[in-house]
Amino acid sequence: MDFLLSFSRLIDALNEAVGRLVSWLTLLMVVIGVYNAVTRKLSQTIGVDLSSNTYIELQWYMFALVFMWGAAYTLKHNAHVRVDIIYSRLSERGKAWVDVFGTVLFLLPFTAVVLWTAFPIVFESWKIHEMSPDPGGLPRYPIKAALIVAFVLLFLQGLSELIKRIALLTGHQVALASGSEEEPSL
């Protein structure tokens, strides 16, 4: 179990780093959005087109990266949306069982299916160097590859969370999303 917990900590560290990087993309995305809005208004005022599809698509791509690559970070911090009418009333051990079943039955199979279906699409996009159909648009193949990275990160974080929940259920001390050491005597 110690090896698996070390592997879990490695995954957590990776997704923590990616999450922090992605948080900076949010700021950059806002700056580009402001630039897009200002140049569009200025273009209308002075009659010279200063805006570009490149910046608009760049903003979309950054939003996609924030959303996709932030998913594993969100899971790591247990900050995802959940309907917890019942879950919130469960003991830590009960929550761990729900998390184990949810991860095994839903999260890991879902991420595996997305990866399985996305690989051919991404491969084809890279093969033809797919471009945006819009004038001045960006290449599409890198953002499609980001989908693969996102679901690999999410799959790995799912494994990490599964390892931590099983460790908790088997009596090991585990640091969960709250950051506190959980007592093994549940």
Summarize the structure in short.
The protein is mainly alpha-helical and 186 residues long. 72% of the residues lie in helices and 0% in strands.
Portion of residues within helices = over 70%
Order of helices and strands: HHHH
Structural class: mainly alpha
Shape: elongated
Number of helices: 4
**Average pLDDT, all residues:** 87
Amino- and carboxy-terminal Cα gap: 18 Å
Q: What is the β-strand count?
A: 0
Major sheet details: none
Low-confidence stretches: 179-186
Strand content: under 5%
Describe this structure in words.
Residues 29-166 form the Tripartite ATP-independent periplasmic transporters DctQ component domain. The structure is a single chain. This protein is mainly α and 186 residues long. The chain has one domain (2-169). The protein is built from four helices and no strands. The chain has helices spanning 2-46, 53-76, 92-127, 141-169. The longest helix is centred in the N-terminal third of the chain and has 45 residues, at 2-46.
Comma- or semicolon-separated keywords:
4 helices; transmembrane helix; mainly alpha; 186 residues; 72% helix
How would you summarize the topology of this molecule?
Layout: H1 2-46, H2 53-76, H3 92-127, H4 141-169
Helix pairs in contact: 1-2, 1-4, 2-4, 3-4
